[in-house]
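From the shared-data thread, chain only:
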Amino acid sequence: MRSWFLRTEMDLSIVIPNNNRCKELELTLQSLCKQTYPGDQFEVIVVDQASGDGSRELVKKMKTPFQLRLLEQDQKYGISVARNAGMEAAGSPIVLILDADVLPAPEVVEAHVKAHRSSPGGLVCGRIMPYPPAYTTYIEQVANPEAGLDRGDKAGPIPFYQASGGHLSLSIDTYRKIGSWDPGLQRVQDIEFAYRAYLLNIPISNCPQAASYHNHPRTLLKRLEYAQTISWWPVLYQRYPEIKGIVPWISSFEPIKWGYDSCSSIKQKMINSIYSNSFIRWFLTQILLFLDHSRFLPKIIRGIFWRLYSGTLTKAFRDGQRIVSKNQDKTPVIININE
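Structure, as tokens:
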């Protein structure tokens, strides 16, 4: 690992993991240049993993009102490794983890600093909302799939499964208590990290004043590919069996538990099972791709999209369950999606 920086202590360090996200990273850094908080009181550390798209050159040449630092890693080790490296390099007692494709509003830095000064020791989750310019397809525009990331405008405690490492701040001391992000998990590492915090009675809160926007364009096929990452949830269940059934939106993808599930739950699981069929998913995909070009029937597109997406999630989750059941003594590598 190589780094270019002069380490000085400030109020806040921002860690941005990056791998070939030069365009998104540039917009994120530009947004950080417009913060209401004084630029000489926070720093930004970009942890770049083997990018070949000009990301490193961008960081080295960009002029910013804050101290901009670059850590270079020679391979794509994964976002957990990047976050951990950034935490260790931070020159401030408070660290904000920000994905390269998350655009912060001008008040983000100020909001996180205030949150930790008023109530130190917790995990503070910033609000993540859809970024309309990132919806480059008609399907995305009418389905609005990024809306699910938004925890709303109500401040206060949130459950561990709503915590997102894409916009999260914590103190170095809290990080030491929880431990590092697990590099062995390709996905669900945010949930696993937050659950360890929960077990230590570390508060997790939503901070709507720290608003941001998810700048990640995806085609339909890319979004369906990303849905496969839910296959890592059974790995989490294998590690922490006590959390089974307590995450509302995940439970609908599990097989029916006769005599335990409610009638509404059984109905939803049966519907998801139908749409998880390979032929039905292929058929719905072809319909959506056709309608995407024609740009009409938005309500129908929205309905088909969410049925297809739920079916894809169900198939991926149950595939993950099958793999975990065959590998009871070790954590399996289920899927590797390079994004």
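The two ends are 22 Å apart (CA to CA).
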